[in-house]
Design a protein that fits this description.
The chain is α+β, with helices and mostly antiparallel strands and about 90 residues long. The chain contains 2 helices and 3 strands. The chain has a domain of about 50 residues. Strands 1-2-3 form a 3-stranded antiparallel β-sheet, covered by helices on one side.
Length: about 90
Amino acid sequence: MEVSPTLISNVTEAVIDEVRQWQTRPLEPVYPIVYVDCLVINVRENQRVINKALYLIMKGPTYWVPQEVGEEWTVAKIILRVYSLPLH
């Protein structure tokens, strides 16, 4: 897809006022960020090697790693747990 310089200028001109308003808006004191990652590891259990998920979840400056991740820890439950952590 080719874009002409005229099209770029027209689009820029159409949105420049909104962009400037956004750039000068008052900032919130905190913008929470949630980072979720999962590492699948091999674990020996009952003389078998099985895959288990190891979740790492960070919210702002806090993080939480479940000690035992199994069927009782669904991703939804883990995310709910993380959202209940306070921001420090």
